[in-house]
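Q: I have 480 residues here and want to know how they pack in 3D. Can you give me a structure?
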Amino acid sequence: MRDKTMNTNRLIHAGFWFGKSDVKEAVRLAEAGVGGFCLYFGTTKEVKELVSLLRQAAPGNLIISADYEYGLGRWHKDAPLLPSNISIGAAGKEDLSYKKGLITARQARELGVDWVFAPNVDLADTPGNPIVNTRSFGKDPALVAAMARAFMLGLADGGCLNCLKHFPGHGSTLSDSHLSLPTVNKSKEDLLSQELIPYEKLLMKTDAIMIAHLLIPALDAENPASFSKAVMGGFLRKELCYKGLIITDALVMKATGGLDPVDAFKAGADILLCPDDPFALMPRLKEEIKKDRTLIDHAISAISEQEMMSVKLKAAKDFICKDCCEEAEKLSAETARLGVCLKGDKPILTPGKTVRFIQPDLSSKEERQFPGFYETLESAGIKLKPYKDGERCNVLIICSAADYAAFSGKINFTQEQKHFINKAVQKSGKSILISFGSPFLDEGVKTDCFLMAGTKTLPFQKTCAEILLGRAEAKGKMPV
């Protein structure tokens, strides 16, 4: 590849948000030769149509990516939601993680998406972390590495690229990097003994590593990892001997604090993901690279790596997912059967019993957020009624799907919700907390038992009901 003909726009992968981004601008970016696009939201039909349009406009290979950690259902309402990583980790079966990767890849490739930004190998070791939580397989590095490896094999067999994230580990933070710059106050030795174990085990098997917007004083006291030569060039490249692609986390996130994306490339990133203004970035990036022979070599290497990824993608099979929805349902049912966890004594609900329920996440006391759970109980003869503030009851069930949400900065129950729940628990005979989301939902809540499902799909709802009716056992092992 000659310097004069090198299109440095290939180093930029733009973001596209359905309902917000301009299709005409995206086509202009494709025509300018960006390396790819990361897609958010929309329907599966909209994704497929946009991808086709962008590929027609692009002068060369275009790599399309998406954050399909939960399968496609997290982003596209017309696609099935797969079990969360925390549910997979609780089940402890690598074949479930493999199936999740395979289904995800087959559905993604059918839409034209090549690159899945997963698996997430952050450790779920901090209850107050607002952004990792159910995205993690658990707190044990060995478990996380094993499940991530199986997921990667599934992606590969389904024809998709993978990406380990968020290097060097976002699990121990207490803030969301979408909103501010989190700090990881751990020694280098602690990082190596915990957070970095999955990376060391999987470095040779990954297609790329996503560098996080984190400040880690033990590695670089001044610059976020995504803008740090010490982290990317020194630690990741030299000490850990990583040779593959490094991609930044999305540069529109507020953790970057307005730092120049060009500096992320100069510090060692190979791909600049979702910069705020790709058109403004293009000429500045090109100009900076022209000034420095080292940067020219870096750009040539980064673009060559992308071309190798494109060759790999062309060699992969394309799939038509005739049975993917059915397979997704089977996976959810199997994971629910093996992955629901129980803490405390298991109460058995008997026909004719009246049970009060609370849904702290909803303002309406009458609305039912988990129909599969409630209908299974009622079909067995359980009488369900919404809890009224201050009343006494024999059995109280608290249900929630509290989960991570980018840019929210919060997770689990608020202090106000905990206070309300604990007051209700004091007036009840037996109290049952069920989480169809966060595994840390019982923190500060004093119930008799805690069922951790980690996923809100119908099979998980029905399984939790069957456990309370004494028809099934909670077979999962708490991964946190």
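Q: Anything worth noting?
A: The chain has two domains: 3-324, 339-468. The radius of gyration is 23 Å.
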